[in-house]
Structures are given as C-alpha cells and as structure tokens.
Amino acid sequence: MSKSRLEAFSDGVIAILITIMVLEFKTPHDPTFAALAGLAPLFAVYVLSFVYLGIYWANHHHLFHAATRISGGVLWANLHLLFWLSLVPFVTWWMAEHCTAAVPTAVYAAVLLCDAVAWTLMKNALVRLEGPDSRVGRAVGRDVKGRVSLALYIAAIALAFVRPWIAQALVAVVALMWLVPDRRIEAVLAEPALR
C-alpha cells in the first residue's frame, strides 16, 4: 500500500467519525431558545470531541507528509489508531448525556488515553522505519507534549471519580495544548525531502 492510500483511508475514516458524531445530535423538542440552550452541555462535549478528531487529522497529515515510506507495521499501527478514534463518537455522547457522572467521564478520558497511546505507537513505528535522523524523527523529537498528554489523561481518569468536571477540564487542557502549533514540525516539513 502506498503512503497516499493510507492517508486517504485515514482521512475518510476520520471524516466518517465526525459525521457519525454530528448525526447523534438531536434537535430540541420545543422551538424555543430555552430548549436550544438546554443543549449547551451536549454541544460543549461535541465541540471538544470534534477538536480532538481535528487535531488527530491535522497531526496525521503532518506526520505522513514528513514520511517517505510505510511498512506493514505502520499500517497496523495506523489501524490501531483508527480503532480507538472510532470509539470517540460513542464516548462523546455517553459523557454528554451524563456530564456530571464519574464513569462516563472516566471512560471518555480512557478512550482519549488509548487514542494517545495508539498515536505514540504509530509515530514510533514510523520513526523506527525511517530512523531517528529522518524528517519524521526530527519532526517528532522527544515528544514532551505527548508524554505530558498521557500523564494528564491518566490523572483525568482518576480525578473523574473525585470531581468529573476536573477530569473534563484536564482533557480540555490537553486539547488546548495540541491546538498550539509546533514550529519545529513546520520547520522540518519546510525542508526539502531527501531523495
């Protein structure tokens, strides 16, 4: 399989996940602003999950743009990532419908943790394939942000049983961390590819 086929397949899966997620949004029963305002918690969780899927899509694009080739191991690591991402719509609506409950919040954070672990495994598979001095290796570097994210997800899972809103705030902080572009990756991507 070519690198472009893997990218196109992944793009399609993420687009379908976003579509599935929005289809779960139900219109209010009453035609009033008050009824619409009642959907605010659901909308907030939807926006957070949409941002997460968008972050994964954008980072996936950058990572594979830096790569020159893929292997069977990278294909399976990518499928592993897509599996965990495919659970985002389910946990989004479970947490949205029970936003003050501990278990749905903990499961939401756990799925995000599994997404991050799967991303790390895929990224590491690419770095192993291309080497630490490759464009991919230089683009991801030591991945401090990735390690901090994993720690925050683990904290969110535990804190969901103390105060769900704290766990939800932690996963929102991780999303905000990833919204800030990494100039190092952009710099490496601006370099001409070695042939």
Structure, explained:
The chain has 195 residues and is mainly α. The chain has one domain (3-190). The chain is 78% helix and 0% strand. It is built from 10 helices and no strands. The protein starts with a helix and ends in a 5-residue tail after the last helix. The mean pLDDT is 92.
Provide the fold topology.
Blueprint (H helix, E strand, L loop, with lengths): L2 H21 L9 H5 L2 H27 L5 H14 L2 H10 L4 H29 L4 H6 L3 H16 L4 H16 L3 H8 L5
Helix pairs in contact: 1-3, 1-4, 1-5, 3-5, 3-9, 4-6, 5-6, 6-8, 6-9, 8-9
Structure, briefly:
With 195 residues, this protein is an all-alpha fold.
The percent range for strand residues is: under 5%
What is the count of β-strands?
0
Overall body shape: globular
Fraction in helix: over 70%
Which structural class best describes the helix and strand composition?
mainly alpha
State the helix count. 10
Largest sheet: none
For the termini, the CA-CA separation is: 20 Å
**Average pLDDT across residues?**
92
The residue ranges in which pLDDT falls below 50 over 5 or more consecutive positions are none
List SSEs in N-to-C order. HHHHHHHHHH
Radius of gyration: 18 Å
Number of domains: 1
